[in-house]
Design goal:
The protein is mainly α. It is built from ten helices and four strands, in the order ααββαααααββααα. It folds into two domains: 105 residues, Multidrug-efflux Transporter Regulator, Chain: A, Domain 2 (Orthogonal Bundle); 113 residues, Multidrug-efflux Transporter Regulator, Chain: A, Domain 2 (Orthogonal Bundle).
Length: 239
């Protein structure tokens, strides 16, 4: 049975924290203000323990910043703001899932693209090869899809990676994908160092998204447990 009153050390022990960490969380506003004894010592209740469980569960689900914002809003009585932050986290996870799906499609397409040997093309040459206009390539560059370097004369130079990204963008545009989605995909390919390395990371990427989704379920349960309790109103400090 959980005792009705706990010291900071008691509250911390369940999570392997220090008593100072609990006091810090209270100072940050992610825990309600503690009650005080006649001598001024903090006293926490099962409600405080539930708040701490909720906050710590929110961190792996939404990140430190959003977890802090959610709990501070709830402690302040602003449930709408807290739930809006929760909704934003779910929206971000859905967007990440969609990005992963797009990357998987892109990798399948990249498998059909013949790698270029060491080659540099000017904007007109690449546009002619893809049968698009130079203006289209400049639009893709502004969207972050292409990142060509400039030569000494200030002219765009497209190397084999740029050509790969342009071919991928061309195929995805024909498939109806929006520019911002394509930019995300090409950024992932470049960051991974190529389609092969990115393909190898997809399983881990999906596992991390699944873990985040599961963490959100756990956080929702902890948060609901805390919200189901009567509001904590600290007792006035005794003289």
């Amino acid at each position: 049975m959980v005792p009705k009153s706990q010291r900071p050390a008691d509250l911390a022990r369940e999570h392997g924290l220090s008593a100072q960490a609990v006091r810090n969380y209270e100072s940050l506003g992610v825990l309600p203000a503690a009650e005080r004894t006649a001598s001024g010592y903090r006293v926490y209740t099962p409600g405080h323990a539930a708040a701490l469980r909720a906050y710590l569960a929110l961190i792996p689900a939404f990140g430190h910043g959003p977890a802090r914002d959610i709990m501070r809003a709830i402690v302040a009585g602003d449930l709408d703001t807290a739930l809006r932050t929760v909704d934003e986290g779910h929206t971000l996870l859905l967007r990440d899932r969609e990005t992963l799906d797009q990357v998987e499609i892109a990798i399948a397409i990249l498998g059909e693209i013949k790698p270029e040997k060491r080659i540099n093309l000017q904007i007109g040459e690449l546009a002619h090869r893809l049968q698009v206009t130079p203006a289209t390539l400049r639009t893709w560059e502004r969207a972050g899809i292409l990142t060509p370097r400039r030569d000494r004369a200030g002219q765009r130079v497209y190397d084999e990676d740029d050509i790969r990204d342009a071919q991928l963008a061309h195929l995805l545009r024909r498939g109806g994908y929006r520019l911002e989605h394509i930019a995300t995909v090409t950024a992932q390919v470049r960051a991974a160092g190529g389609a092969g390395l990115l393909a190898a990371s997809l399983a881990d990427w999906r596992e991390r998204l699944t873990a985040r989704g599961r963490a959100m379920l756990t956080a929702a349960a902890r948060l609901d447990d805390y919200l189901s309790r009567p509001p904590l109103v600290p007792s006035p400090r005794r003289p």
